[in-house]
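[step 3/7] inverse_fold.run input=structure_tokens len=379
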């Protein structure tokens, strides 16, 4: 693939620490990096990809086959429809029929749902084989593909079945963003902005400097350079956190800012909302909850709304779904027993937890993000 924006700078390598360190490579035209991440022992490679990326998957297959790898393709459904036990079973079938061993590997090529699925398939085949993630959306680059959380959905909730399985490498080829629909770029900015609120205020400043440029149909070279910096900063935030806490024992929970309410929206809407849109509303809900609990001032809450709205993200949700949302939040992975737990802020870059808030407080925060139901699916 060729690049017309910002492709002259070399790749940036961000190391994710822990017991099995790996690099996240950010740059342009990174296909040549893949064999080095796979390593010399790998003989067979399964590329998991959605149908929309069939051409790209074939290009990767040809490149690897030319280097002597035995390469297989598994085309899976788009978005969240791929994250099912049935689709995972299809991938296991391909691995079994091709005779994949523990020294072989999976490549996840696609958005966050694809990388979640590919990681889960790799984690569960022979109790764990190598996976390289090649995210093709902004959301996947800054969130889903980095950190080793893998999973599939069930009828009861999102990512309830999964495993912690760090990749051996991640390739964030920014060239992929140049053909990404604007709405996908907007949705990905939600996770970027989240990283700004929980750890890196400079991210917020970069977005606020010229938000329209970041979501323009044809961004300028300057805007592409800013997007690259935003990707690198967001990846660094996640890398620092997961390097210290792979299994979400403590610190890693801060990455779930906005996700308790956001995941509840996704479940209530049967995954018709984009993840970034749901998390955007979830962050405003968490901010309102912290304000009502006396832990966050009005200005920071207002900044949530202003920065999210400036790039076209929603900050409110329909007013007639509280019962369903509450049930969904009680199923959230961060809940302990019957105790609801929320990541909140005591200030910008000062994340903390709020455990077991009073039900009246929860309902009051919902009132602050409510609007009359329109039936519209945002983004």
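[step 3/7] decode complete -> sequence:
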């Amino acid at each position: 693939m060729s690049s017309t924006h910002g492709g002259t700078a070399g790749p940036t390598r961000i190391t994710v620490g822990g017991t099995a360190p790996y690099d996240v490579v950010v740059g342009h035209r990174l296909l040549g990096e893949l064999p080095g991440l796979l390593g010399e022992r790998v003989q067979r490679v399964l590329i998991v990809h959605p149908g929309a990326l069939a051409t790209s998957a074939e290009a990767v297959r040809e490149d690897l086959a030319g280097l002597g790898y035995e390469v297989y393709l598994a085309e899976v459904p788009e978005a969240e429809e791929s994250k099912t036990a049935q689709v995972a079973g299809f991938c296991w079938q391909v691995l079994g029929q091709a005779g994949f061993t523990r020294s072989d590997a999976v490549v996840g090529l696609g958005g966050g749902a694809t990388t979640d699925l590919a990681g889960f398939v790799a984690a569960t085949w022979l109790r764990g084989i190598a996976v390289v993630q090649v995210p093709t959306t902004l959301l996947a680059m800054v969130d889903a593909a980095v950190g080793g959380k893998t999973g599939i959905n069930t009828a009861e909730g999102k990512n309830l079945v999964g495993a912690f399985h760090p990749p051996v490498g991640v390739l964030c080829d920014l060239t992929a963003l140049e053909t990404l629909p604007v709405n996908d770029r907007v949705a990905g900015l939600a996770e970027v902005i989240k990283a700004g609120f929980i750890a890196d205020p400079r991210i917020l400043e970069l977005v606020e400097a010229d938000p329209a440029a970041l979501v323009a149909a044809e961004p300028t070279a300057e805007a592409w350079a800013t997007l690259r910096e935003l990707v690198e900063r967001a990846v660094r935030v996640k890398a620092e956190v997961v390097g210290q806490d792979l299994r979400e024992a403590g610190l890693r929970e801060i990455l779930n800012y906005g996700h308790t309410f956001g995941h509840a929206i996704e479940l209530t809407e049967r995954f018709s909302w984009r993840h970034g849109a749901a998390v955007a509303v979830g962050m405003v809900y968490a901010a309102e909850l912290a304000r009502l609990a006396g832990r966050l001032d009005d200005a920071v809450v207002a900044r949530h709304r202003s920065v999210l709205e400036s790039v076209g993200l929603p900050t409110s949700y329909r007013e007639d779904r509280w019962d369903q949302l509450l049930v969904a939040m009680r199923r959230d992975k961060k809940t302990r027993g019957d105790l609801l737990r929320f990541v909140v802020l005591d200030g910008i870059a000062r994340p903390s937890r709020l455990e077991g808030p009073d039900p009246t407080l929860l309902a009051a925060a919902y009132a602050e993000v409510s609007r009359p139901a329109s039936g519209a699916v945002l983004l």
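[step 4/7] annotate
The chain has a mean pLDDT of 90.
The CA atoms of residues 136 and 176 lie 5 Å apart.
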